Amino acid sequence: MSRPFSMPRRTVLRGLGAAVALPWLDAMSPRATLAAGIAAAAKAPLRMAFLYVPNGMHMPAWKPEKEGPLAQLPPTLAPLERHKSSLLVLSGLTLNGGRPLGDGPGDHARAAASFLTAAHPHKTDGKDIRNGISVDQVAAEKTGRATRLRSIEVGCEPSAQAGNCDSGYSCAYSSNTSWRTPTAPLAKETNPRAVFERLFGSRASEDDRKGAVRRQQSKKSILDFVTSEARDLQAALGEADRRKIDEYLYAVREVERRIGLAEQLAPGEAHTLGFERPGGIPAEYEDHVTLMLDMMVLAFQSDATRIATFMYTNEGSNRSYPGIGVRNGHHELSHHGGDKGKQAGISKINRHHVTLFRHLLDRMASIREADGTILDHTMVVYGSGISDGDRHNHDDLPILLAGKGGGAVRPGRHVRYPNETPLANLYLAILDAAGADVKSFGDSTGRLSGLG
Asked: At what angle do helices 192-200 and 285-301 cross, to 10 degrees?
């Protein structure tokens, strides 16, 4: 009997300045012949994603009424009905670093800065910024050695490293959630082409760099330069793996096509945020979000990285959403003062963000690998560093954990914790699942129980 074709997990299709890593295939699973004659397949890698939404939430429409199994989802989470069995809604978690602690106003800046660090940022609008190391970067230190990229940081509004954005707090705080060191935030990439080239472009040598320039000037698809290698490889694979490669390469080409369409648009006019839409950015916000989320999925699927962060907008953003009938600015509406009309507008924005989040879950759940899907092998934290935007409170935050974390998480539930339970306790628990040996994180008081 002929031995089944096998290939290393790090197989890459290479062409002119291109390096297209392949998704998880059956042929990549190392098999050992056991005494019982059963083949054992390797375990899929564990990923983490952290998605941040600004300005808090209309909590009555977010929080499930009862603790325990998720029955009827509340209005804001209703778009996630088909993923209900993959959701864990966590109530009662607190971000103490978002509070003033003697520093006065600046809740928006503190909310974003402390969301993944669980630290209290130093109040300054100068160069002496100081925060904490974020949980994604702690995880990246553990997993980054196994992937080409330690992590990716993406979003839809540009990061800043200076300026006064919130009551004396640097813009670095309100526009970044990922911090490599206490003084070095990781600026998010908002240009889809730059993210795509980081994932699939090769810069390993001077020849690669020159080849990448020639490839981009040719206006051809990146896949046109690896077609021959892909065809030869598929000829040696089984039917299931050939289908996986076809689906993966189609997804890559489709993302590249959408990037190309955005690049044909002229830069947009200035809007309520005070800056122009740069060239290469989709005209519609929703298209921008889904394009960036799709590239996060491709990054996980190709194992380019296992850690990703995404900001829908910067904290305190006053973006309007005319496509869903909300023409007032988000931040303006969040200061609702109990006004029912403004609360309705906030609820629409919250639900819209969740609907876009559903796109990410749809993609992750549709991609099979090893003994499940990418969603099964991921922990996705979705939420905000503010609870009610009008009160600017940082307790009982809107926090959602999606995915099964490779078996570490038992979703399909609403778990309510005692108020003032640190959000950092959740991060300790998910770092455990990733195999990171961390005794404490931020203001943690222990590992969050009840996830598994």
From this structure: 10
Phi, psi of 46 (to 5 degrees): -95, 130
Question: Same domain for 317 and 267?
Answer: no
Q: Are residues 101 and 135 in the same domain?
A: yes
For residue 258, give the nearest of 159, 179, 192 by alpha carbon.
192
Residue 51 shares a structural domain with residue 181: yes
Residue 200 belongs to some domain of the structure: no
Structure tokens that stand for 24 in this block: 């998880």
Same structural domain for residues 240 and 94? no
pLDDT for res 213: 65
CA–CA separation, 72 vs 11, rounded Å?
A: 44
Shared domain for 130 and 105, answered yes or no, is yes
The pTM for the full model equals 0.93
Q: Which domain does 7 fall in, by range?
A: 1-42+205-280
Lowest average pLDDT, out of 113-127, 217-231, 239-253, 309-323, goes to 217-231
Convert the pLDDT of each residue in 231-290 to its tens digit.
988 888 999 999 999 999 999 999 999 999 998 987 775 554 555 677 789 999 999 999
Residue 256: burial class (beta carbons within 10 Å; 0-12, 13-18, 19+): middle
Q: How many CA atoms does the CB half-sphere of 193 hold within 13 Å?
A: 16
**Which positions ≥6 away from 218 have C-beta within 8 Å?**
none
* Residues 397 and 69: beta-carbon distance below 8 Å: no
187-241 pLDDT tens trace: 999 999 999 999 998 766 666 566 666 766 677 788 988 888 889 888 889 999 9
Beta strands in 280-352, from DSSP E residues, in sequence order: 307-311
Q: Is 14 strand, coil or helix?
A: strand
What is the rounded (10 degree) CA torsion for 250, 253, 255, 259?
Answer: -160
* Angle, helix 285-301 to helix 340-366, in steps of 10 degrees: 30
CATH of residue 105's domain is 3.40.720.10
Domain match, 293 and 152 both: yes
Are 357 and 436 members of one domain?
Answer: yes
